[in-house]
């Protein structure tokens, strides 16, 4: 693989290029690369899944989302923290279901027949996230994000990547999963 | 270069496997030689030993392990000479040969550390000593006149097979076997486990189909009933045969019939397929399980070695007897119990079997016996290690427990035998001098218990002073799927591995007593702590107090040397379950071992018995007894009923109904026995059959009512005959109630009893 880059430079048509011409092209490319392209400047976009949870509207990156299911047959797991809603069977696999609202210290949400489970995979950790209602899957322009100030949202800034003008709180799932409280590991002494 | 390294790595893997097998075979062969074999056996054993060390030498050379090659070479010389009859193997030589085997293990272990062979092992020195030992010892008198043994094949069926002496056949590679990595079997096992889930789901579908059939059947019935009248109405309304409504009506009927036929056919097919699927999955699972099974005997060579060495060093004479060595168990289970068993065997010699003089003084046979017994019982395997030694000195345990602060002096004085025996598993005590001092040999009895419990099994100990000690390990038969008891608590179903369940008992408020402020029931003559499962699981919900008149099931779990009775709402049944974990986020949840998916798709949590017992000792839940409105209502509320019947079926049926309803029960086979039973102790009510040998129900009632002591004792007569004549006669002799067995349902009997007492 590495060797290929050192081969004589050829034009698209396949003919060999003069060294001066090569240098010119490379310089041109370097300049272009150094410049932030106008599109990027307007804001890189992220695919997000937008859902409501305990009265607020949140977004998570769609890349983490494996599937969305209606919440059915939740089995409550005793001796777990309050934010663990229980476990469910999603297509033959057992998923732990987490109430992020509760995890972020905002109190447990009310589970009803419209509640859904968003199955996510964050850095190899598979989880089900409770959602009162999954609103949409759409594109979000990252540069329009405002910092999540306490005046805007009750969610701690460490768990967010920002808030959109539409007041969607974009959650930082990686940060949430990195939180040591997320993993339940308790022995009986 | 790297190809060679790769190749060498691969070679090392197979070399290690071969080495392990050969070492085991050589150990077994040596042990066989020591047990005074016949000449033919001896020759065959030597031949085999020679072959093993020779092959070992070649294999070591192939992976450039010079030290092992040289060691094997040295041993080959010894066996060669012994084979030729130039030397005989002395005890010193045996010891050296065993040491050689240990050295090989040492070499491999030091290679694992990556720092090369530990010079402290002094292999060259050993080889010199070995050579000196056999060269310096020429044959004293050629006891063997026979020429060197002919190859085994030359005497077919004549001499006993060499393996007979050198017991368990070490797995020797032969053409029709394949080596498979255990991980591949584990994968297969997991896949087969998944099939079990599918099968449960199909079973569920059959039930749903049956419901669908029933629904359709109701519809058809309704339709038929409505048909006559509707058709009359249609005719009356002027609709002729050809009218659209009439046609629609007929078509509908056809659709319905076709639907029913089709559904029934479909249901039958699904049911057939399910039966086949069940059969195949059963066989498949059983087959894969069996592939992973190894007989207990595979551990024996190691055990025999240890017992031999230890007995020699302690100067005691011990024989190891094995019963059920062919009992197979899962490889993983076997690996997990190897160390615990080894420890128990060592314990037998260290603390069980007395020195020769002491045994002589007690009139015991000089040779001590250790029995290793394995047995499959239903879904568990029980492995027992028994010795005929001194037994456990309970007084010493008591003293040590106080010294180590495990018990207060008062508690120790009161502690019963079982409590004290359980204490020897406590970690503080396992190093104590009296019980289990096994210096520097790895694990103590607390670890034995931990290992066994990590397999969801349990350990029990029995001991009789001067007679011996027995340790029993109860282990699950297999690990992939576990036989579980399904229960309901706090409205949610849970599963408990059956191997941890000691007993199921019904508990009513009358059974509960308070011991040192904690609620308990009577179990095996001792108080046993009682806890509500929901409380231990810290599940919210209104705790229901036990009612006096009804009983709730309690599951007695044994773990960590403790037993606790857990009250549950309901017993749901028994099922083979595939244990899954809860995922990485729920890495370790207290009291929960895992989960399973039932045929319905529901997730059911599997409880961790070890955790539960620990947690229960810590939980102070709300009281189980109903608030004490009247002092000790329970003890007084328990009424005793005497059941008199010559039919065991009826007796059992009645006893079950009445026990469940919270009554104490006494039994008598006929009127005659009933009278003597009453003479022994009072009852609150008598339920009697009519036709019985010796004294029938009428006569019993007549005598009771005529006797001043029993005049007020209510009598219920139960009969299979609904004869007005008998009824009249029953009333005439003074019976308080008369129940016909045909109408004999439990409510009827219970209502009658409640009216009377």
Q: Can you identify the CATH superfamily of the largest domain in chain B? A: Histidine kinase-like ATPase, C-terminal domain
How many β strands of chain B by DSSP?
Answer: 23
What is the N-to-C succession of helices and strands of chain A?
A: HHEEEEEHEEEEEH
**Unreliable stretches of chain A, pLDDT < 50, 5 or more residues?**
1-6, 38-42
Largest sheet of chain A: 5 strands, mixed
Average pLDDT for all residues of chain A: 82
- Structural Rg of chain B: 36 Å
CATH architecture annotation name of the largest domain in chain A: Beta Barrel
**Broad shape of chain B:** extended
Secondary-structure class of chain A:
alpha+beta
Question: Regarding quaternary structure, how should these chains be classified?
Answer: heterodimer
* Strand-residue proportion of chain B: 15-25%
Number of helices of chain A: 4
CATH class of the largest domain in chain A: Mainly Beta
Number of structural units classed as domains of chain B: 5
Highest-level CATH class of the largest domain in chain B:
Alpha Beta
Query: What spatial order of strands do you see in the largest sheet of chain B?
Result: 10-14-15-13-12-11
**CATH topology category name of the largest domain in chain A:** OB fold (Dihydrolipoamide Acetyltransferase, E2P)
Helix content of chain B: 40-55%
Describe the structure.
The complex is a heterodimer of chains A (189) and B (757). Chain A has helices at residues 19-34, 38-41, 100-103, 173-178, and strands spanning 45-53, 56-61, 65-70, 84-90, 93-98, 116-122, 125-131, 133-141, 160-163, 169-171. With 189 residues, chain A is α+β, with helices and mostly antiparallel strands. Chain A folds into 2 domains: 7-35; 45-182, OB fold (Dihydrolipoamide Acetyltransferase, E2P). Chain B has 5 domains: 2-151, Four Helix Bundle (Hemerythrin (Met), subunit A), CATH 1.20.120; 182-291; 295-476, Heat Shock Protein 90, CATH 3.30.565.10; 481-618, CheA-289, Domain 4 (OB fold (Dihydrolipoamide Acetyltransferase, E2P)); 639-756, Response regulator (Rossmann fold, 3-Layer(aba) Sandwich). The model of chain B is unreliable at 138-174, 430-443 and 626-636 (pLDDT under 50). Chains A and B meet through strand 4, strand 5 and strand 7 of A and strand 17, strand 18 and helix 18 of B.
């Amino acid at each position: 693989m590495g060797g290929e880059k050192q081969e004589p430079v050829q034009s698209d048509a396949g003919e060999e290029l003069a060294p001066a011409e090569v240098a010119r092209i490379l310089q041109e490319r370097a300049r272009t690369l150094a410049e932030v392209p106008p599109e990027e400047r307007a804001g890189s976009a992220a695919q997000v899944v937008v859902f409501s949870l305990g009265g607020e509207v949140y977004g998570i990156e769609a890349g983490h989302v494996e599937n969305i299911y209606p919440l059915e047959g939740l089995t409550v797991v005793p001796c777990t923290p309050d934010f663990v809603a229980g476990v469910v069977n999603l297509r033959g696999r057992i998923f732990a279901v987490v109430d992020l609202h509760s995890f972020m210290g905002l109190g447990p949400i009310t589970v009803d027949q419209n509640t859904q489970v968003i199955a996510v995979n964050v850095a190899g950790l598979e989880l089900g996230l409770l959602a009162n209602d999954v609103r949409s899957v759409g594109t979000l322009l990252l540069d329009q994000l405002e910092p999540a100030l306490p005046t805007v949202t009750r969610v701690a800034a460490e768990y967010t990547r920002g808030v959109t003008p539409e007041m969607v709180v974009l959650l930082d799932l990686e940060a949430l999963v990195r939180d040591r409280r997320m993993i339940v590991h308790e022995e009986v002494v | 270069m790297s190809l060679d390294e790769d190749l060498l790595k691969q070679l090392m893997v197979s070399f290690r496997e071969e080495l392990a097998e050969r070492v085991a075979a050589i150990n077994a062969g040596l042990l066989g030689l020591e047990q005074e074999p016949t000449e033919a056996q001896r020759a065959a054993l030597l031949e085999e030993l020679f072959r093993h060390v020779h092959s070992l030498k070649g294999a070591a050379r192939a992976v450039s392990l010079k030290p092992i090659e040289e060691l094997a070479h040295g041993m080959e010389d010894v066996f060669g000479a012994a084979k030729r009859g130039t030397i005989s193997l002395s005890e010193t030589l045996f010891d050296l040969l065993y040491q050689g085997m240990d050295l090989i293990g040492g070499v491999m272990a030091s290679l694992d550390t990556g720092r090369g062979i530990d010079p402290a092992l002094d292999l060259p020195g050993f080889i010199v000593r070995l050579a000196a030992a056999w060269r310096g010892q020429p044959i004293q008198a050629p006891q063997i006149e026979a020429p060197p043994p002919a190859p085994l094949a030359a005497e077919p069926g004549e001499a006993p097979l060499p393996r007979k002496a050198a017991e368990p056949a070490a797995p020797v590679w032969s053409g029709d076997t394949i080596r498979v990595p255990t991980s591949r079997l584990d994968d297969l096992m997991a896949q087969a486990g998944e099939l079990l889930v599918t099968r449960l789901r199909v079973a569920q579908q059959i039930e749903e189909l049956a419901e669908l059939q029933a629904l359709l059947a109701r519809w058809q019935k309704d339709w038929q009933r409505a048909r006559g009248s509707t058709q009359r109405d249609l005719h009356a309304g002027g609709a002729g045969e050809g009218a659209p409504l009439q046609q629609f009506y007929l078509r509908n009927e056809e659709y319905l019939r076709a639907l029913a036929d089709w559904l029934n056919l479909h249901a039958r097919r699904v049911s057939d397929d399910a039966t086949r699927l069940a059969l195949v999955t059963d066989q498949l699972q059983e087959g894969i399980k069996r592939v992973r099974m190894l007989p207990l005997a595979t551990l024996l060579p190691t055990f025999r070695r240890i017992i031999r060495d230890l007995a020699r060093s302690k100067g005691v004479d011990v024989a190891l007897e094995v019963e059920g060595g062919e009992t197979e168990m899962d490889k993983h289970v076997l690996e997990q119990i190897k160390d615990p068993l080894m420890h128990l065997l060592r314990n037998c010699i260290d603390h069980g079997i007395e020195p020769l003089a002491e045994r002589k003084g007690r009139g015991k046979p000089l040779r001590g016996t250790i029995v290793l017994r394995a047995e499959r019982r239903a879904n568990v395997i029980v492995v027992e290690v028994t010795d005929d030694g001194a037994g456990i000195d309970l007084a010493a345990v008591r003293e040590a427990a106080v010294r180590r602060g495990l018990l207060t002096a008062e508690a120790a004085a009161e502690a019963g035998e079982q409590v004290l025996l359980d204490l020897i598993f406590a970690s503080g005590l396992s190093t104590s001098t009296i019980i289990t001092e096994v210096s520097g040999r790895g694990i103590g009895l607390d670890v034995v218990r931990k290992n066994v419990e990590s397999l969801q099994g349990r350990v029990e100990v029995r001991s009789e002073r001067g007679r011996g000690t027995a340790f029993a390990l109860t282990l699950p038969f297999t690990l992939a799927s576990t036989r579980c008891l399904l229960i309901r608590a706090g409205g949610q179903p849970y599963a408990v591995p059956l191997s941890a369940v000691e007993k199921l008992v019904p508990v009513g408020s009358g059974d509960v007593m308070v011991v040192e402020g904690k609620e308990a029931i009577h179990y095996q003559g001792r108080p046993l702590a009682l806890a509500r499962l929901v409380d231990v699981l810290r599940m919210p919900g209104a705790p229901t107090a036990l009612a006096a008149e009804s009983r709730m099931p309690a599951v007695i779990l044994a773990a960590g040397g403790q037993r606790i009775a857990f009250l549950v709402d309901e017993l749901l049944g028994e099922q083979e379950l595939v244990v899954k974990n809860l995922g990485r986020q729920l890495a370790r949840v207290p009291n929960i071992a895992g989960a399973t998916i039932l045929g319905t798709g529901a997730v059911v949590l599997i409880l961790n018995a070890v955790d539960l017992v620990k947690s229960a000792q810590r939980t102070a839940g709300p009281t189980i007894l109903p608030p004490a409105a009247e002092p000790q209502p329970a003890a007084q509320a328990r009424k005793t009923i005497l059941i008199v019947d010559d039919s065991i079926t009826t007796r059992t049926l009645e006893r079950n109904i009445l026990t469940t309803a919270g009554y104490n029960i006494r039994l008598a086979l006929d009127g005659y026995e009933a009278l003597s039973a009453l003479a022994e102790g009072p009852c609150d009510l008598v339920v009697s059959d009519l036709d019985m040998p010796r004294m029938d129900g009428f006569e019993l009632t007549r005598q009771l009512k005529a006797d001043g002591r029993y005049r007020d004792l209510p009598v219920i007569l139960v009969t299979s005959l609904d004869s007005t004549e008998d009824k009249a006669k029953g009333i005439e002799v003074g019976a308080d109630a008369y129940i016909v067995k045909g109408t004999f349902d439990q409510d009827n009997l219970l209502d009658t009893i409640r009216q009377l007492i």
